[in-house]
Design goal:
With about 400 residues, the protein is an alpha/beta fold. The chain has two domains: about 250 residues, Type I PLP-dependent aspartate aminotransferase-like (Major domain) (Aspartate Aminotransferase, domain 2, 3-Layer(aba) Sandwich); about 140 residues, Aspartate Aminotransferase, domain 1. The strands form two sheets. The protein has a seven-stranded mixed sheet with strand order 1-7-6-5-4-2-3, sandwiched between helices. A five-stranded mixed sheet has the order 8-9-12-11-10, with helices on one face. The longest helix has 21 residues. About 50% of the residues are buried.
């Protein structure tokens, strides 16, 4: 039977302590033991079902981690207090002084800043490449390379990584392929394509209500256990722990993710086709004009579509800012960073979420100052939304 990530989530069953349809929330930082031996066994990781301290794990965090591992088709997962709290421990667990990373050049600004500016302090260096060019990726692999890092769909330029092609390179050179799947939950299952570790910012589509910051690492039991080791685990020792109350909140929202992703994708597909037909430079993996459209079609779980993110280029930062301000005034969305909210969010990434990338490097990768990144919301009448957005563009002589 074909892997269906939504079914994997749905098939999990949890009950609360008193028979509640939601699991009980473990609102404790530390846990008691009936015997001293149970405590020492838990420290050594040999006590099944015992909890020690919530920085290590908690029942609420384990419920959410189990659901997310099921969604990605991995053996295990570990949740964290933010997306960066997932990304940085993975890199630091797999890389040490003198090691090297090959990374996509178009990635979330925070990830870029960590690899470019912070990791070199630890003598971990990175080559940033066009991830869509497998020859370039291979040419930048050297004897010190430990991981290839990419986003399934890149932030903000929406380049698509050829995960199966990258898997072949990773296996050829004995590397780990780390995939940030934040833009494409349910739509793409990177581990089923051969990736080693999958990361999400739970803050975005998975939670969906812009009220929680969180992250998750999905991988093998061996790798997740290594991250949580009290001796040398990066997640344990760096301490990016998710609060149990937040874990419970994300788990509730996760149950509607399949409905939300379908609507996000439907609305984004509708608008992207309309804006491209209007003559706007529009980038969306669901458009035939996207360089990786055919590749992406082979990667996605069809029913969840091409995702809720697209960009348009209106020519200048002045026009971009004017359009975003007008659309917000007309209540068509919010001028805000992040994504995956019920309301459309838009920003000019060159001066916001990708501002950590120097301007000359933005120019090299094709990130112009007129680009607006859209996270399309759950609008019920997307035709009405389109007409109102188009009216804003006409008012500003963009169309």
């Amino acid at each position: 039977m074909k892997f269906n990530p939504a079914n994997e989530i749905q098939d999990l069953q949890y009950f609360g302590e008193f028979g509640g349809v939601n699991p009980s929330i473990s609102d404790s930082s530390t846990y008691t033991f009936l015997t001293a031996k149970s405590m020492s066994d838990t420290f050594e990781g040999t006590a099944e079902g015992c909890y020690l301290y919530s920085r290590h794990t908690s029942p609420s965090n384990l419920h959410l981690a189990e659901a997310l591992a099921a969604m990605e088709g991995t053996e295990a997962a570990n949740v964290s207090a933010s997306g960066m709290g997932a990304i940085t421990p993975v890199i630091l667990q797999l890389c040490g002084a003198g090691d090297h990373v090959v990374s996509s050049r178009t990635i979330y600004g925070g990830t870029y800043a960590f690899l470019k500016n912070f990791a070199p302090r630890l003598n971990i260096n990175t080559s940033f490449v066009d991830i869509t060019n497998l020859a370039s990726v291979e040419a930048n692999i050297n004897e010190n390379t430990k991981i290839i890092f990419c986003e399934t769909v890149s932030n903000p330029l929406l380049e698509v990584a050829d995960i199966e092609g990258l898997v072949k390179l990773a296996k050829k050179y004995n590397l780990k392929l780390i995939v940030d799947n934040t833009f494409s939950p349910l739509s793409v299952s990177p581990v089923k394509l051969g990736a080693d570790v999958v990361i999400h910012s739970l803050t975005k589509f998975i939670n969906g209500s812009s009220d929680t910051v969180g992250g998750v690492i999905c991988g093998t039991t061996e790798f997740i256990d290594s991250l949580k080791s009290v001796i040398d685990g990066a997640s344990m020792l760096l301490g990016p722990t998710m609060d149990s109350l937040r874990s419970a909140s994300v788990l509730k929202n996760l149950r509607t993710l399949h409905l939300r992703i379908k609507q996000h994708s439907y609305n984004a597909t509708y608008l992207a086709h309309k804006f491209e037909a209007d003559g706007l430079k529009t980038v969306y993996p669901g458009l035939a004009s996207h360089p990786s459209h055919q590749l992406y079609k082979t990667m996605i779980n069809d029913e969840f579509g091409f995702g809720g993110m697209f960009t348009i280029d209106v020519g200048s930062i002045a026009k971009a800012n004017a359009l975003m301000e007008l659309m917000q005034h007309k209540n068509l969305g919010y001028l805000a960073v992040s994504l995956g909210f019920y309301k459309t969010l838009f920003s000019a990434p060159g001066t916001s979420t990708s501002s950590e990338i120097p301007e000359e490097e933005q120019a090299q990768m094709g990130l112009s100052d007129g680009i607006i990144r859209f996270s399309i919301g759950l609008d019920n009448d997307i035709e009405r939304t389109y007409k109102m957005m188009k009216a804003c563009m006409k008012e500003l002589n963009i169309l």
